[in-house]
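Entry 14. Structure prediction run on the chain below.
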Amino acid sequence: MVEQNGSDTVFTPDEHRRLRQLLDEDAIRNLTLRYFHYPDHRYCERLKEVFTPNIVCEFGPYGAWEGIESFVANYTAVNQDMGGYPFVSMHANTQHWIEWQDSDTAVGRRQLLDFDLTRSADKNPLLWLGLYEDRYVRTTEGWRIATMRLSFFWPQRLVDEHFPGDFPDDLLS
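Output returned:
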């Protein structure tokens, strides 16, 4: 920082850019947290606040989901299949890695721990371990997820033959 008038400080242009980026990274992380909280709470309609209308998701054994209406309907159906009440499952989002393409586009990887809370206490509640790969875009409504791919590692390893690829370049191209 450069001092001005003895006690005031002014950020350099690079510091301004980095502060903007940190604010955007925080908004993206909050977005991905809401993605996990909304279905866990059974707020499936609120997923529309997280994704672009033309969202494309590749969910391994759950198939490809395209468009926000399909996405919400599929998540609602999964919740119904597991019992239809809040917290039939609990999703943990960890190790979020974000890389920038430009000031309005970023990609990220984050790890999934998915717990099935309908299982009895004597059963392991861990359902899946996986890795999300997302593309984030700035919209007039704020940051949204435009594409999402989920690779599963446990209890079955269900990954593409090219995994892990060259992150972040594979998603930035």
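The mean pLDDT is 91.
Filed with the rest of this week's runs.
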